[in-house]
Amino acid sequence: GDVRIMWYSDGVEGEVLADLMKRFMDQNPDIKVTIDNVAFGVIKEQLPVQLEAGHGPDIARVTALKDLSRHWLDLRPLISDAAYWDANFGAQADWMRPDGSNQISGFMTQVTLTGGFANKTLFEQAGVPLPGPDATWDDWAAASKKVADSQQIPFAMALDRSGHRITAPNIAFGANYIGADGKPAPLDKGAKDFITKFVGWTNDGVMSKDVWVSAAGQTYRAAADDFINAQLAYYYSGSWQIPNFATKIGNGFDWVATGSPCGPAACTGMPGGAGLVAVKYTKNPKDVAKVMDYLASEAVVKEFSERTLFIPAHKGILDKGDLNFKTEDPQVKAALDVFVKASKTTAPAAQKMPGWRWADTVYGALVTRVAQVIAGELPLDDAFTRIDSDVATKVKDSGL
Amino acid sequence: MTAPLETASKPSAVQHLGAIALAPVRLVMGLIDRPLRALQRMTGLSGMAIFFLAPNMLIFGIFVLLPLFINFVYSTTGGSALFLPERSYVGADQYQRLFDCSNYLDPLTCQEDAFWTAVSNTFWFVVLQVTLMIGAALVTALILNRNLAARSFWRAVFFFPVLLSPVVVGLIWRWILQRQGLLNFILYPFGVDPYTWLTDRTWSFAAAVGVSLWAHMGFYALILLAGLQAIPKDLYEAADMDGTKPARVFWRITLPLLMPNLVVVIVLALIRSVQVFDEVYILTGGGPGTSTLFITQYIYETGFVSQPRNPGLAAAASILMGLVLVVLTLVQLGLGRRGEKKGKR
Amino acid sequence: MGQITLSNVKKSFGNIDVLHGINLDINDGELVVFVGPSGCGKSTLLRAIAGLEKITSGEIAIDGKPVNDVTAADRGLAMVFQSYALYPHMSVRQNLAFGLENSKMPKAEIDERITEAARMLEIEPYLARRPGQLSGGQRQRVAIGRAIVRRPVAFLLDEPLSNLDAELRVSTRAELAALHARLSSTMIYVTHDQVEAMTLADRIVVLRAGKIEQVGTPLELYNTPANRFVAGFIGAPHMNFLEGTVSSVQSGNLVVALADGYQLAIPARETSLEQGARITLGIRPQHVTLGSGDKSIQAKIKLVEALGSETVLHTEVAGQKFLVVIPGQHDLASGTDIDLSLSSAPIHLFDKDGHRI
Amino acid sequence: MGQITLSNVKKSFGNIDVLHGINLDINDGELVVFVGPSGCGKSTLLRAIAGLEKITSGEIAIDGKPVNDVTAADRGLAMVFQSYALYPHMSVRQNLAFGLENSKMPKAEIDERITEAARMLEIEPYLARRPGQLSGGQRQRVAIGRAIVRRPVAFLLDEPLSNLDAELRVSTRAELAALHARLSSTMIYVTHDQVEAMTLADRIVVLRAGKIEQVGTPLELYNTPANRFVAGFIGAPHMNFLEGTVSSVQSGNLVVALADGYQLAIPARETSLEQGARITLGIRPQHVTLGSGDKSIQAKIKLVEALGSETVLHTEVAGQKFLVVIPGQHDLASGTDIDLSLSSAPIHLFDKDGHRI
Amino acid sequence: MGRAAAFILRRRGGKGWHWTDIVTWVWLIGGLFIMFGPALWLMFSSFKTPAALAEFPPSILPYTSQQVSVEGHDKPLTLYDVTLPDGTTKKLAEVRRIGLFSQMVDPAKPDETIRVNINSRKPVQELSFATENYTGPFVHFDFFRYLWNSVFVTVMATLITLIVNSMAAFALSKYEFRGRSVAMLIILATLMVPLSVIMVPLYSIISALGLFNNLWGVILPTVATPTGVFILRQYMLTIPDELIDAARMDKASEWQIYWRIVLPLTAPALAVLAIFSVVWRWNDFLWPLIVLSRKELYTLQVGLSIYSGELNVQWHFILAMTVVTMIPVVLVFIFLQRFITTGIAGTGLK
Ligand SMILES: Nc1ncnc2c1ncn2[C@@H]1O[C@H](COP(=O)(O)OP(=O)(O)OP(=O)(O)O)[C@@H](O)[C@H]1O
Ligand SMILES: Nc1ncnc2c1ncn2[C@@H]1O[C@H](COP(=O)(O)OP(=O)(O)OP(=O)(O)O)[C@@H](O)[C@H]1O
Ligand SMILES: [Mg+2]
Ligand SMILES: [Mg+2]
Q1: From the CA of C40, how far away is ligand 2's center (Å)?
Q2: Is D155 on the interface with E (CB under 8 A)?
Q3: Which stretches of chain C are assigned E, i.e. beta strand?
Q4: Which chains contact A through at least 3 pairs of Cβ atoms less than 8 Å apart?
Q5: Where in the cell is it found (chain B) (predicted)?
Q6: What structural domains does chain E harbor?
Q7: Which residues in chain D have Cβ-Cβ distances shorter than 8 Å to C222?
Q8: Residue pLDDT, tens place only, A275-291
Q9: Are strands D203-208 and D31-35 parallel, antiparallel or unpaired?
Q10: Is residue B88 part of a domain?
Q11: Is B303 within a domain?
Q12: DSSP string for residues in C134-171
């Protein structure tokens, strides 16, 4: 029968998938797979509407995995080898299933991890050594500042305008958003500490203010372009930037991935990523399971990851460590290796976030309010109370 | 009297094509005529009025009015579910929440501080943008209406931005205005230091106004241009004979007779500036801080982006916005009605 | 101050030639009437003088200064448009005031002039109305009013009285004449009304298909039309034309044979007519009397039109149409034969090209 | 087929009353001319009959059927608008064809009718042009053409010839008369032209300020006007009125004293006039002759207008304006005193309310 | 030349520069830069590689570094202008860069490597058009299918819009009937509703009508645009009622009056609305995105949107496709704008 996949792309992954599916259809002539390429906006805003109406594709690549989990199909009875799935994708299975079930909804096409990038050339030119793997946020701030001062660049560091991004250092500083009842807890000391420090940095000109003030509300803004143009010494973003840097920086300068700087509590990045899930409104669950089985098979996952430069979620592949990313740029390989390594040291608090229902709620409140503080519209203390009350209201609104 | 046979309006190739294309239309129109004549006999002129109005109203009712009504129902419900049956009735709670303020002049004292910030930003935006828009569109239309060489080229120049999608508009201007953008690049040789236009509250607001002006001015200019064409030429001749200065011709002849079309422009400009979103969202994202956060962005974020969504609150905000617009438009039309009557021959 | 000179003025719309080289001198303070058949170019010429229509070639000069490149607004003339061209969005009062306000006239004087013009044109009751709420004749009067309040150096009036009733037309005509006398401004006046043309004009210009046929005082044109066209055009009902051939030329006398053998002796001026030449006799309907006599012809009545003060007989003379106007009311039946006497009629002679002999 | 009955038709625009109860029967095939001063409601009445203007009260019936609620398109009339109202986006030919296409006439017949009308109105050369490219008179002819190609049961013509030159006017008038005779369709004709009214009309309706003053045949109105208004309105130039008082009433004779003591004896019909009653004498300018005699008065010439075929003397008699029309051209200077003889003049008498005695 | 200049610089009336002439030309030239400049820049930018797009400061024209093939190296090398320590400048090709220094060769003497500080070299730029921005999408997506869908939606929606709106506008401008002001008011009131607000209810209605994943589901909700009714109605108000009277006397039915008299005389406003409708429908994005979730049904704008990912937007493709998709609307504009200048309604009257 027909299987439709709703897919968005940040880079070449759409073409790779199309390639793989062509191969699949050659092997399974009875199944016709159609890939509906869409903008990420469609996945984020329109797919929920469709799903609630009981429409939707058969398979979709989604990031709001937990939020929409009640629409996912349980593949467990349909796939050929549930044990293989549990073994290799079990770590993230909880991110995409309704709380309290053991459903297999799908698998992560890619896991991402937040982390930093340094402009090695700038550091060299400034004669400042790159801080080591265990360097703290303060170390990086100090080093970058030196570089910025000597190289006359506008800002030393930047951190994407995103609640997800800022949560990584928050956790490193000991934050825990999750209350005892599983609902959001008020901001704790760890979070407040880092946010205070962060706001201080933006005021001092260490941290780029532009990216945070250049939007209102929860809008995502990245500082990647500044990094690409050598306007930043240090940029905290995530693994997904690697292909982007590879094409846009070229050999303009040397850059390195540094993993996540440490805080008092941990040295951790934030995991995330997109998952491929089956939708329960499908008319051909069997065929869907076949497609999913194929895409989740070790060889396919490996090929997919190698060609897209994505970090796979597949435990077996990661453990083997024989990924051979298809790139000629040694910097890319090195960077990917850094992230693959870092993914193994992610703090448990960070690991829990993607599977936590209220994560986006907290992220949203954080971004909105911290940005207002940086823009000078709100005192920091007010922001903390506002964040707490915003989150509380949302929880109340949802009627749960 | 020997007037030669008509050669002045020899049909051009385009007209020929047009005639061929029109032939089937003629036929169809002719065919419908007979039943419609019967209808007209039966119902009289007012019946025909209803007939002409009906198709529009039908489509309109189904695809605009009905959703609007549903939207109102939304505003009385709570929860994050998108579809009505799954939502709970909360009465006027959402409205109450929007109006929960201890001091209406200071948005930060409100429960929904973002809403009130957006309201005040939108207000100033509308005031500024609409005045400038009407002025600019009018000047452009007047100039394009002159006997210029290469008229179509100039028209295209001013209309061109309208062809661009808001996303592209926002993008181009962000690239122009950002710290290392084209503008700073161009200004640098003139001794202007690179400036971060978009992270300065005043400048980014001005940019939001300017860019939306840039993007939509051609639209209004075109409406006015068509309106200018409808003014009988002999009135200008009469004014010329009366020794009227161009400025006075404009104020006393052009403007009053343009009134029906000017009303369109004023009303549409007003409504669309209240609804401003896409290009500004791409351009400034509402920043810096919340200085260019407008109502539609608030509605969009509340209803679609934030987790969990709050469609009820978004609907309530949109209903409030609609109400304000209705009032404003009625005022406009009240003023315009006089003009309309005036324009009649 | 109001002398207008046209030198070889030509005008075409696309490839339609409308004016074929007009030469005309209009003196300061003169009242010139343009007459001519519908579509002959009167309005176009007026608009060209006004500066509303760019002429194709030639020159227009006002007071000796060429004005080809001067805009209408700067020529300082006033015009009554054939189509009125009233400002639809202004009240009658505003329509009248508009031109005056342009020249920054004090309000009191504007009011005074409007009051005067409104009284003169009998439009006082409508001053507050919009043109759309007026009758055709009322609109036309507003159009006239708009021109006269301006008191310009020259007026251009394009059939300004065509939609007025007889009484109003007479009075307005008289007012215009008085105005002309008082302001001594030049006036160019287009009309189709014979009475208007004859009574108002200092000189009449007869146009035909974009060319001037004759220029002269009204009685000059009436009594000595330069050609058959002018003869037929001036005078209502139009002059009768009888085609004939010269059958004998005696000193001081010309005998003309009409179509069916009638012979008519005409006292002729010195003439170079040959015997047998084709000739046209022109006789005005008013100069024919009933009754047989010296120079009489027989006619058959085709139609009788009683106008009250006079009776128009449509007759046939020698197979040609022949109009007779006799004063008073007469009980004549169509179909009867009557005798017409030409003894007191001045007879106009035209050669075969239509030129006056 | 074309009988139109108006019963107590009233029309107001807002609070402006325009028609005050019009009662009129127009017979099938009749040609009725509406005359009246500018703004008296002629066009409004015509538009009401056409169905373009909703009447405020009263009833309009065509062929006995009330048509108050019938739309203009279904009344089957044709109209020539005072403002022409040509379709600006259509060529002249299309303007003419439009009405015929609406009644699904075969193409060949449409062409034939257009050709005929165009020939008749002399607009063949302009068939391909748009109205905007025509002269005023040409537009007016197209407007007439648009009505006549339709051959409707009734024509409504609102000053259809006002912008045509004299010659064309005469010929078009004749064509209209012929058309009327041929189609025997009802015609309602509004005009300000005396000659048109007198020659075309079966009956003339004189309107004044929204009321009918008199209805009758042209000569009826001319010879026995019902009141001073009609008397003044019919006939050009208008009738002279002399105010006076009855100074003595003798059997068969009435002596009237004019303002400055003149005494005028008038043969009077049976009359109930008292001595001392205020009275108006009406004398048509054409009925006055020069020279002293039986009934003569003295006049002072104020202005002489030479029309060619006749001369109009504006004089003053007993301090009142007095017009005299004498045939031919005369060399009279204004300011001279002349004697006028009224011996052959029919004298109309009107009482102080203006009613005919 | 002189005549051409005189033609182009035609001025009001006769001789001399009137102030309005000056304003006109200032406005036009200013407009050329401000209105057209950015658009032109967009056009050039669509030929830039992703790297060049992200480059600061931006260039106006699409430049890339010049490459040379040098003997002994498999791949072409990038050419640089190098300031040598002795102050002379030379064109050298870069073999590789190590840290702050780069190894360079003179293409003429490929054997000799020179060590150069990276700050004293500058890439040699040349004009180059990245046509792959244009060709790429043709490979990625089913361009002609999307084009057809777009054309279908645009043409149908525009036609229906014009007909339905002009009929309504006719009724609202030329008839007196009960409920007229109410109808007008409703239409105006709904002008105020942004689509995003009624999206969810509208979506329910579309699904209920079975128009989901159907091009008509995109077309229908847009055709009763209040804007169109409003524009047309206001324009029709300026058409003299007397022409309609004349048509009624000519036995025209109301339908004929509508389409033979009123429609042609509304041509300028119809042209305006047609242009708008085409632009709107062609650029429509949000709504088709919701209704059309299958790629066979995608319109160009929806197809184009696939380059917007979560974390990365492939602007080079988007710009190139924006330019491509703009071509038809520009043509439509150029064709239709001529009808805007045909205002003749008044000329049929005296
Ligand atoms: N729309 C209107 N509103 C108010 N008054 C009007 C309107 N239309 C016409 N009138 C008035 O009604 C009266 C009659 O107008 P109508 O057009 O019938 O006159 P008419 O007899 O045709 O005059 P004319 O000979 O000048 O054409 C006029 O006094 C005019 O001012
Ligand atoms: N815009 C135009 N295009 C083409 N021909 C035109 C145009 N305007 C006028 N004409 C023609 O020029 C000629 C002269 O027109 P004009 O208006 O001057 O005539 P007129 O003498 O005023 O006639 P009328 O007495 O009918 O008003 C006419 O034959 C007319 O058809
Ligand atoms: Mg004319
Ligand atoms: Mg009238």
Answers
A1: 7
A2: no
A3: 4-13, 16-26, 31-35, 57-62, 65-66, 77-80, 154-158, 186-190, 203-208, 211-216, 240-250, 253-258, 263-267, 278-283, 289-290, 296-306, 310-317, 320-327, 337-341, 348-350
A4: B, E
A5: Cell membrane
A6: 2-45 (no CATH), 67-123 (2.30.30), 141-347 (1.10.3720.10)
A7: 308-309
A8: 999 998 999 899 999 99
A9: parallel
A10: no
A11: yes
A12: S-HHHHHHHHHHHHHTT--SEEEEESTTTTS-HHHHHH
Any E CB within 8 A of A50 CB: yes
**Cα–Cα distance for residue pair E99/A119, rounded to 1 Å:** 11
Domain that includes residue B150, residue range = 109-344
Residues within 8 A of E (CB atoms), B 248-267 only: 257, 260-261, 263-264, 267
Q: What pLDDT, on the 0 to 100 scale, is given for residue B4? A: 35
C-alpha dist (Å) from residue E53 to A247, A249, A332, E136? 11, 11, 21, 17
- What is the 8-class DSSP label of residue E340? G
Nearest-CA distance E226 → chain A (Å)? 26
Does ligand 1 come within 6 angstroms of the Cβ of D42? yes
Please state whether the peptide bond connecting residue E57 to the residue before it is cis, i.e. omega within 30 degrees of 0.
Answer: yes
Q: Which amino acid is at C107?
A: K
Give, using CA atoms, the residue closest to atom 29 of ligand 2: C39
CB contact under 8 Å between B40 and D71, yes or no, is yes
- Ligand 2 centroid to Cα of residue C44, in Å, is 6
In this structure, the residue with its CA closest to atom 3 of ligand 2 is: D133
Name the amino acid, one letter, at D46: L
What would the two tokens of residue E2 be? Answer: 């002189």
CA pseudo-torsion sign B131, B133, B134, B140: positive
CA distance C138 to chain D (A): 7
> What is this structure's pTM?
0.89
CA B103 to chain centre: 33
Q: What is the mean pLDDT of residues D214-226?
A: 93
Ligand 2 atom closest to residue B3's alpha carbon, by position in its atom list: 29
Q: Is the distance from CB of E250 to CB of E322 less than 8 angstroms?
A: no
In the predicted model, is pLDDT for residue E6 greater than 70?
A: no
What sign does the CA torsion over B178, B179, B183, B186 have?
negative
CA-nearest residue for atom 29, ligand 1, is D39
Q: How far apart are CA B38 and CA B46, in angstroms?
A: 14
B182 CA to centre of own chain:
29
Atom 2 of ligand 2, residue of closest alpha carbon: D133
C190 by DSSP, 3-state: which? strand
- CATH number, domain of B316, equals 1.10.3720.10
* Helix (H/G/I), strand (E/B), else coil: C353: coil
- Largest CA-CA distance found in chain E, in angstroms, rounded: 97
Task: List helix spans (H) across E111-214.
Answer: 132-140, 143-174, 180-191, 195-208
pLDDT > 90? residue E345: no
Does the interface predicted TM-score (ipTM) exceed 0.85? yes
Give the number of domains in chain B. Answer: 1
- HSE-CB at D237 with a 13 A cutoff on CA atoms is 27
Q: In angstroms, rounded to a whole number, what is the distance separating the alpha carbons of residues A305 and A300?
A: 8
Instruction: Provide the b/e sequence for A156-169 (b: ≥16 CB within 10 Å).
Output: bbbbbbbbbbbbbb
Chains C and A touch (3+ CB pairs under 8 A): no
Q: Would you say residue B262 lies in a domain?
A: yes
Residue B153 lies in a domain: yes
State how far the alpha carbon of C196 is from the alpha carbons of B28, C45, C168, D322, in Å: 54, 20, 13, 19
Three-state DSSP at D23 gives strand
CA–CA distance, C70 with C60 (Å, rounded to integer): 10
Chain D positions touching B3 (Cβ under 8 A) are: 125-126
pLDDT at residue E1 greater than cutoff 70: no
Closest CA to C58 of C23, C33, C82: C23
- Per-residue pLDDT tens for A85-115? 999 998 888 889 888 888 999 999 888 999 9
- Between the alpha carbon of residue B5 and those of residues B2, B8, D118, D289, the distances in Å are 9, 9, 14, 54
